[in-house]
Amino acid sequence: xxxxxxxxxxxxxxxxxxxxxxxxxxxxxxxxxxxxxxxxxxxxxxxxxxxxxxxxxxxxxxxxxxxxxxxxxxxxxxxxxxxxxxxxxxxxxxxxxxxxxxxxxxxxxxxxxxxxxxxxxxxxxxxxxxxxxxxxxxxxxxxxxxxxxxxxxxxxxxxxxxxxxxxxxxxxxxxxxxxxxxxxxxxxxxxxxxxxxxxxxxxxxxxxxxxxxxxxxxxxxxxxxxxxxxxxxxxxxxxxxxxxxxxxxxxxxxxxxxxxxxxxxxxxxxxxxxxxxxxxxxxxxxxxxxxxxxxxxxxxxxxxxxxxxxxxxxxxxxxxxxxxxxxxxxxxxxxxxxxxxxxxxxxxxxxxxxxxxxxxxxxxxxxxxxxxxxxxxxxxxxxxxxxxxxxxxxxxxxxxxxxxxxxxxxxxxxxxxxxxxxxxxxxxxxxxxxxxxxxxxxxxxxxxxxxxxxxxxxxxxxxxxxxxxxxxxxxxxxxxxxxxxxxxxxxxxxxxxxxxxxxxxxxxxxxxxxxxxxxxxxxxxxxxxxxxxxxxxxxxxxxxxxxxxxxxxxxxxxxxxxxxxxxxxxxxxxxxxxxxxxxxxxxxxxxxxxxxxxxxxxxxxxxxxxxxxxxxxxxxxxxxxxxxxxxxxxxxxxxxxxxxxxxxxxxxxxxxxxxxxxxxxxxx
Length: 668
Known about the structure:
By secondary structure, the protein is α+β, with helices and mostly antiparallel strands. The chain is built from 11 helices and 36 strands. The strands form 11 sheets. Strands 11-36-35-34 form a 4-stranded antiparallel beta sheet, with no helix packed on it. A 4-stranded antiparallel beta sheet has the order 12-13-14-15, with no helix packed on it. Strands 16-17-18-19 form a 4-stranded antiparallel beta sheet, with no helix packed on it.
């Protein structure tokens, strides 16, 4: 009794009326109140009534009601209580059965200690009432439990009908999948074929719950196994990251040591030649000083001769000067061959800058699982996506952002971009293009504020591109009957070449392990080795409806969009080959030459019409909306199209050799 009293005081008391919960309801903020109390409080708040919501008196958070058209007094009827609160009320609340005193005697106004419990009648009985209970024909077969034992007494929670407040819920309409009272059965379920008592369905319901319990236990064990595996992986990854950190420091140290070695070599060379030069200049100074002294002595000697009265001395001095003896005495040659004239430092500033720009100790290559996040935790994979803060608003007017010239050094022919895809690799946007005339795949990106590109030559003319992983693509090479896989770093690296049995043009990644490809008259599903798993040739009115599936893409729901240039139509197929829709409908041709096709994150479909110089916008169900890009926007012979996941649309203008980038901005 003390435990029940404490629970009622601390956990089962409404903070509005300060009484034990009466018909409790738990709001979205997890605060619980009596239904009548929270409704009464809501009536005093016009903002809550206007918002058609119940207002929490404790935190002021709104709880939206399911039937706002009903009277306010009934708004809280559909708000369920927390199962913990309800369980405590059933067990310890004032509404629970009193197992200390006899229920039958209590009805007669008497208080008699109970000795047994009848779970079928949901009553506690004294010895006298128990004997009467065992003699009555309708109850004599009921098994009772001794209240003096330690066994727990099961209690039944009585649920009242919301409409008929005095009647208990006892029936289940299997047709309507609703529990009802007797009156509801008579009024609302007369025509239903399967109305049974709730008690009769309990074995089947319990059986289903047991199966669900087993499934939950199995899933729990699998998740525990995955968690344990991830914990082991965390330790392994930490060790790997520590090794990477050591490698980065080692590469940095090695680069610094090499630079220091070059610096010391240059300083040593400078010291050697500078000391030699200074030594030469010092010797020149000494030699010059000696010459100056000799010339001074000769000058003094001439002065003495000029003052002499001996004519012969003057004549001999004159003859010596004429013969050059005087000059020869002090003549020092300071222009010997091989002498150092000047030392300068020729700095290779441009080369050093280019070297530093190209200097890379390595790159952190992050591979993401190609799995769409659905709100559940998957311990086997992890997703990452870029939140650009912008979405593609196809109702907005297009604005040309830039034009990318796909010509590259070494091209022997004019560049004809056939397909384009956009990736974010190592934190930078990379545009990948197939150039059919130059038999190459090219990537364009910006590094150190400079536009750069990479070019990968192939054996044949590439056509379509599809993303395999975060930084891997597959490209069809139809005439060579090949599909090549390429890594985008953002420079291009050839990974593998798959030989196929047909000339495949369009390609799209259907699942992480399968590809959908288009050949003449069919759409095939391949595994990653190029083996045909399924070949689809859909038929309508006795005729095959696929001719030239030159471009494919996968929708957000896993369906296959086919751009058929031969029959000038767009088809939507399931992975089983069923036709979802065709556009345009038969007899109403509005496409000149459909080429590239893509599906946005909202399910909208964009088709490049090469002959009509337009980009067509279709709904997810294949209904025409409008031409979102035309020749007036700078679109000329659009051959392919893709979106970057934000608000940018990339168009291949094939014959001009450039990619037009448009924005349809809707900043959020």
